[in-house]
Design goal:
Elements (H helix, E strand, L loop, with lengths): L1 H13 L30 E8 L2 E8 L23 H10 L3 H5 L4 E2 L9 E6 L2 E6 L8 H15 L7 E5 L2 E2 L18 E2 L2
Parallel strand pairs: 5-6
Antiparallel strand pairs: 1-2, 3-8, 4-5, 6-7
Length: 193
Amino acid sequence: MRALLRTAALLAAWLPLAACGIQETDVIAAGGAATIDVLPARQVRMLLFFSHDSVLMPVPRTVGESEFTGDEMGQDSSGEAARPPTEKTMTALLAGPNEAEKLAGMVNEASLPAPGTQATTEVTDDGVDVTLEAPLDGLTRPAELQLVCTVAFAESTDGTVTVTLRGTDGTRTPMRCDPQSALAPTASGATSR
């Protein structure tokens, strides 16, 4: 029995050495992280950001699914159907999730401006200015990111545009969409609206 144990111990010690002939290789640079576009295509959907268990989630909504889409879409310079207007996308966000989105657990942060709040956008050299006919004082970080990410992806396919929120009580610091910074639950939490 001892001979068998000795043989097994020798075999276990020898086994890692069997791979010594494998040559080490350098790290191969493959470029940046891959980016994908969400289906359906950008021209027939708006990308809204809702909260699900205190996590900010992008939710594509096909144009024509609600009363907030459809007739205002135009054509871009190439004659193709243009994306939905950013103001319309903001109106849809403030109105909250539709029935299917609610069933999936999506909600608006409670501190977002009320449905029907007037929102206008203006593209500037520095990014996009969003003016809301509501105070921003009580806006939580997750609610702020819901607005910023929705506008950023409405204005650019990669969502990297800088967004400045303006309300009746002042202007917030310009920011970019960073859904990861909204992962911590808030004291107020999210409620369905």
